[in-house]
From TrEMBL:
<dbReference type="GO" id="GO:0016740">
    <property type="term" value="F:transferase activity"/>
</dbReference>
<dbReference type="GO" id="GO:0005829">
    <property type="term" value="C:cytosol"/>
</dbReference>
<dbReference type="InterPro" id="IPR043129">
    <property type="entry name" value="ATPase_NBD"/>
</dbReference>
<feature type="domain" description="Gcp-like">
    <location>
        <begin position="34"/>
        <end position="231"/>
    </location>
</feature>
<dbReference type="Pfam" id="PF00814">
    <property type="entry name" value="TsaD"/>
</dbReference>
<protein>
    <submittedName>
        <fullName>tRNA (Adenosine(37)-N6)-threonylcarbamoyltransferase complex dimerization subunit type 1 TsaB</fullName>
    </submittedName>
</protein>
<dbReference type="GO" id="GO:0002949">
    <property type="term" value="P:tRNA threonylcarbamoyladenosine modification"/>
</dbReference>
<dbReference type="InterPro" id="IPR000905">
    <property type="entry name" value="Gcp-like_dom"/>
</dbReference>
<keyword id="KW-0808">Transferase</keyword>
<dbReference type="InterPro" id="IPR022496">
    <property type="entry name" value="T6A_TsaB"/>
</dbReference>
Length: 247
């Protein structure tokens, strides 16, 4: 059995293929935000390099967000299209949990808490705090949108020893000063800071075996907030600009 996993919620797109023995291989793009052009190329590379024909796939997994709105749409739409054509079930995986799993592959066993944070701009982030629980992860601070100070205060209230907690994600790029001022936490280096399809594949394999699959039509993106255009439309800002164009 093989599961194909797609991760396009961050700057760089990636695709992974995992087998029943949990051996994963992945291919990544070096182009920032080039998901539409890259994702199917990466899928083809993964399958061809491993000499796997599409009929050998058992499921398709996607990182459903949060993250880049455009990236989420591309990844989920691609996974749904492949699953529909091949008549395969889908597995949904949170990008935040995938980042926690990515960090867990690189840190010392003494690090038990994982704080994935994605820059949502304007002093905001998408984040959560996970703790290692058996073979998986439990969210002890829920996945949602936060102001940076709000999230850091929530982390400090957990009374976790700084060296037990690692931050991961491009939120570090935006808020490193604030994080360092909050405590001596471990910060993921750039070589494993960002979203990657391989941990998404490993999480998807566990969920597939547990029966946590959905039909392609029910693979739903998790944007975690409305797009800027939608918020501007609701506030009237976009409507007023459109009105001026029509005058």
């Amino acid at each position: 059995m093989y599961i194909l996993s797609i991760e396009t919620t961050g700057k760089y797109g990636s695709v992974a293929l995992i087998d029943g023995a949990a051996k994963a291989v992945s291919r990544s793009s070096n182009e920032e935000m080039n998901h539409l052009q890259d994702v199917m190329v990466l899928v083809d590379q993964c399958l061809q390099d491993e000499a796997i024909i599409p009929d050998k796939l058992s499921a398709v997994a996607a990182s459903i967000g949060p993250g880049s709105f455009t990236g989420i749409r591309i990844g989920v739409s691609t996974a749904r299209a492949i699953a529909e054509v091949l008549e395969l079930p889908c597995v949904a995986v949170s990008s935040l949990e995938g980042m926690a799993a990515l960090a867990d592959e690189h840190v010392e066993p003494t690090v038990r808490y994982f704080a994935p944070i994605i820059n949502a701009r304007r002093g905001q982030l998408y984040g959560a705090l996970f703790v290692r629980a058996g073979k998986g992860y439990k969210a002890v601070i829920e996945e949602r949108q936060y102001m940076i100070d709000e999230f850091l205060n929530a982390v400090k209230q957990m009374e976790v020893t700084d060296s037990e907690l690692v931050f991961v994600g491009d939120g570090i790029d935006a808020y490193e000063t604030e994080i360092r001022n909050a405590g001596a936490f471990v910060l993921a280096p750039v070589d494993w800071r960002y979203q990657d399809a391989a941990p998404i594949a490993r999480l998807a394999l566990r969920r597939f075996r547990a029966g946590a699959v959905v039909n392609y039509e029910k693979l739903i993106p998790n944007y975690m907030r409305k797009s800027e255009a939608e918020m501007r439309l609701e506030s009237g800002t976009l409507s007023s600009k459109i009105g001026k164009l029509q005058c």
